[in-house]
Amino acid sequence: MKFTTALAAASLLISNAFAAPSQVHISLGGSVDESGASSGMYVMWKTDDQPTSTVKYGFSEDDLSNTITGSSKNYLNKHGYHHTALIENLSCDVSKVFYQVGDPADGFSEIFTFKRAPCAKSNTKFSISIFGDMGYLDSDLRPPKIPHGDEPYHGLNKVWSATYSRNMLESLKDNGEIDWVFHVGDIGYVDDSFASAPLKFTYEPVYDGYMSWIQNLTSTMPYMVSPGNHESECHSPICIAQELKYGRHLRNFTAFNERWTMPSKESGGSRDTNMWYSFNYGSVHFVSINTETDWDGAEEQETGDSHIPWLKAGGFGEDGEFLTWLEADLAAAYADKKAGGRKWIIAAGHRPYSTIQEMKIEGLFIKYEVDVYFAGHSHSYSRTTSTTKPVYIVAGGAGCDEMGPSKDDLLLGPVGGDLIESDKYSTGVLDVSDEKLSWRLIDSIDGSVIDSVDIA
Ligand SMILES: [Fe+2]
Description:
Layout: H1 3-19, E1 22-32, E2 38-47, E3 54-58, E4 66-69, E5 71-73, E6 81-87, E7 96-103, E8 107-108, E9 112-115, E10 126-131, E11 134-135, H2 163-174, E12 180-183, E13 187-188, H3 203-213, H4 215-218, E14 223-225, H5 237-241, H6 243-250, H7 254-259, E15 277-281, E16 284-288, H8 321-338, E17 344-348, H9 353-358, H10 362-367, E18 372-375, E19 381-384, E20 391-395, E21 419-422, E22 426-432, E23 437-443, E24 449-455
The structure holds fe (ii) ion (FE2).
């Protein structure tokens, strides 16, 4: 190799190393097809500097001849660029899409694949994993450095693990048991990350770590997310002490809304954010609700999870906009269901039943025949019986540093109803057909089925 060629190759390697795309993840989106399903996929990734946001894609590994250009944002100085591009208008006969992300000058990622959403309202079978409250790694790999006695320090445990659930998700993917993932809030617990390095800025590096840790899932199947209280802000000692440098830029769900793109625009949901949205997939209309802000009494309506006065939060829509949208969205889904369209309506949000009561939307769920409401927040599992709809399922036991018994002050289902409960590390799988919703809760450590139910 000539010296100049070698030098050019070396500089490309250096350049690639600096700008290499990481944290590749996808979510359902784009204009809807004639069945009402997403015709495409948002593709998102991170780079350290700011190359162009380019996706090359095609329908075989050898032909990535289609190119789209997206955009990038830098929401925290010196902490990289988050890219988003949209592949859409995929025809109904497309089964598999091959893609890579990057920049023509700096280079591209490896080639990933995803499946297009089913182009039909019925006769579609698919499976998803649904859970909330999954942290990043475990206390062996990220040991807490704050003072710990026998009791948790401000709710932070000394020993915990999200590794079991992460490994279980990998095995569900490898076995073809899931088509996509719905993480209903509290993604990585990055606001707790200072526990393992109290005086360092850990929020962004740990979020980066979480996103790389799950890339093997998120680059090949949609990873849909709802906002949880742990998405609201950075309130570590350094974020508070250096408010102008960190705290102000990371308040009010910034990282959540800049790193992820959900189909809010497509569904008339929250403007330019992921705070509320809906989408169709096969025989289901899914609604992701906002349990955190934009309704009277919402806990993060004025300030974030720490309630430090200057870390303001809330206000993603006009007064009443979110709940007005929710009713209209459910009413339309119900009309479609009654007209012989989609068979199921599934709502999901971060907080359990007691918040549904506080939001005063329990009546909407009944009126528009929501079949199931999935939540997390309580770091354990509970399910109401399937005799009354909606069935309320809390799947919050994926594992995090706050894992522990159910929060005593939360009502997990209607009073007087029976609850099936578990406090094991667990992940849930929902198998959907036109005939039934089959839910099972899997022990993330040994793979055994802790609970299962058919909802028809
Ligand atoms: Fe939570």
